[in-house]
Amino acid sequence: MFIVYILHSESYNKIYVGFTGNLEERLKSHNELGKKGWTRLYRPWKLIHFEDFQTKQEALCREKELKSGKGREWIRHTFSL
Prior knowledge:
This protein has helices at 23-33, 56-67, 69-78; strands spanning 2-9, 14-20, 46-53.
């Protein structure tokens, strides 16, 4: 099972899109454990959406779609960000 997820930083009005096989651990990494990387700069992150996929390829395609200009526009419109 693969999960594509969308995080939002209310403090900075930033969006992050990613995919993982373990959402709980990944969220912990973004908000607590990670010592380097882009997401540590904009903590705290709130999970606003996720989608399950059977294959890694499906998840990667959806992640790429959400990271596009139209995908980010959809995110901001759908979740009123």
